[in-house]
Structure formats: structure tokens, C-alpha cells
Write a structure and sequence with these properties.
Layout: E1 22-26, E2 32-36, E3 39-41, H1 45-54, H2 56-65, E4 70-72, H3 76-86, H4 91-102, H5 112-117, H6 120-125, H7 130-145, H8 158-165, H9 173-182, H10 195-204, H11 213-220, H12 227-237
Antiparallel strand pairs: 1-2, 3-4
Helix pairs in contact: 1-2, 2-12, 3-4, 3-7, 3-9, 8-9, 10-12
């Protein structure tokens, strides 16, 4: 196997958008609204050591990428809104739309109750498609009526979180996996359908084609229990972000 250079392209941008500190800015109407940034931390040393020892190809890729930080969005509600908005659009478009939606609340990010009360036209004017308006409205309704057990997510297994979140319209397995990685900070998630992950593995391991699910799982097996961190490195390798969803599958809700 061989290690190839990093793909040219955009810098790694995808990181949920909150931090413990809250900054303030004026929106277009002159209101003061909160702007949050990601909570950031260094990867656990034991995770880095494990990945380096487990896979020499990944080890070399980590050297090429250099040090990274783990950005985490601890707000599950906003993480879901962010992920829904980010589906099937470019990083630039997603960031612009998320910024406009984030300014729609009375004090910044709109709450579930505020989204539920908004007219479709307001959300459409912020840049959401008609389908995504339905999705965020469904999310808000389920959040408020308790049919989405968001308070219990932290205690659920990864599989249980995916099953719970995919009950929401517009949230498929790929989106749920991003919530596991970027919001719940789960350490061992491998988004096997993510294009950036598949492209990076193809390049790093000199594969003739992008790996399928089974091949990707086989290659990633030595990375356990730190496949989330490996995925973050793979997104950097591909100069891609998980802001563009894989092609929709017939019957899926993504």
C-alpha cells in the first residue's frame, strides 16, 4: 500500500458552530445577537497513539495533515438544525444559510418554540428549501412534544441514537452519524457512506475505486475504538467536509 499526497481543495471548514464563550454582534436589523463558536480540544493522546500504531498508512497521513483540534457542538438542537441545513449544499452556501437562520431568534439562535412559530416564508427567505422547512419544523415539533427523546440521547448507545434521530423527517443515518461525532462526541463512529471519507481512503490506500461499505469497514477495523478521530483526519486528507450528503437512497429520509 502507498500513501499519496493530500488532495488540493478547500481547507477543512466543517465544524459545529458553538463554544462556551458567547460573542455578540449586530444583525442586519441592528439587533444584538449571540454568535457562538465551537468548543475545541486536543485529541486524546491515547487515541493518537493507537491510530499511529494500528495503521502505518494512517500514521503517515496524520503526519501530513498535522495537529488538529476536535470541534464539538454540544447543543443537540442546533447540531440537528445545522446538519439538516447542510445537506446537499456546498460548504459556502451552508455557512451563509446557517448564519441567516441563527439570527432569526429573539436573542440569536432560534429556539425550537421560535422555529415552530415561524412562518414558512421566513425560513424560505433565510435560504431553506421547501423540504428543509418541513424538516426543521418537524424537528421543532418533535422536540417540543417529547416524541424526540433528546434528553435521553447522551445515555443511548450509538445505534440507539441513530434509530431515535432518524425518526425525524430529513434526518438519515449519515446526518445521525454526524451528530454522534460532532455533537455527542462519540469516539468510535465511521460514516461509511460519507463521500469525503471514501475518497480519502481510496487515495491513501491506492485503491482503483472508492471503497464500498464492506471494504471500508475492513480497512477501518484496526482504528477501533477511535474511528471518529480517524474520520476527522480523513476529511482533512480529502480537503472535504461532511457538509454535502451522499446521494439520497430511494425511500430514505435524508
Amino acid at each position: 500500500m502507498r500513501v499519496v499526497g493530500l488532495l488540493p481543495g478547500l481547507p477543512y471548514i466543517r465544524s459545529p458552530s458553538t463554544t462556551i464563550a458567547i460573542l455578540f454582534s449586530n444583525d442586519s436589523a441592528g439587533r444584538t445577537v449571540s454568535i457562538r463558536r465551537p468548543q475545541r480540544s486536543a485529541p486524546p493522546p491515547e487515541a493518537l497513539d493507537h491510530l499511529r500504531r494500528a495503521d502505518p498508512v494512517l500514521d503517515a497521513a496524520m503526519d501530513a495533515v498535522g495537529p488538529i483540534e476536535l470541534a464539538v457542538e454540544p447543543d443537540v438542537w442546533w447540531g440537528l438544525v445545522d446538519s439538516i441545513i447542510s445537506q446537499q449544499v456546498s460548504v459556502h452556501a451552508a455557512r451563509a444559510i446557517i448564519g441567516r437562520v441563527a439570527a432569526l431568534g429573539a436573542g440569536g439562535r432560534p429556539t425550537p418554540a421560535e422555529v415552530a412559530a415561524m412562518s414558512d416564508d421566513v425560513l424560505r427567505a433565510a435560504g431553506l428549501s421547501r423540504a428543509k422547512v418541513r424538516y426543521v419544523k418537524d424537528l421543532a415539533a418533535r422536540w417540543l412534544d417529547g416524541s424526540l427523546r433528546h434528553r435521553e440521547l447522551a445515555a443511548m448507545s450509538d445505534a440507539e441514537v441513530i434509530a431515535e434521530l432518524t425518526r425525524v423527517k430529513g434526518v438519515g443515518v449519515w446526518t445521525a452519524e454526524l451528530i454522534l461525532i460532532f455533537t455527542l462526541n462519540r469516539p468510535d463512529v465511521l460514516p461509511v457512506d460519507d463521500l469525503g471519507v471514501r475518497v480519502a481512503v481510496q487515495r491513501l490506500y491506492g485503491l482503483a475505486e472508492r471503497p464500498g461499505r464492506d471494504e471500508l469497514l475492513r480497512i477501518a477495523e484496526p482504528w477501533r475504538p477511535w474511528r471518529s478521530l480517524a474520520s476527522r483526519y480523513l476529511w482533512r486528507v480529502a480537503s472535504a467536509t461532511p457538509a454535502v450528503a451522499p446521494p439520497a437512497v430511494t425511500g430514505a429520509t435524508e
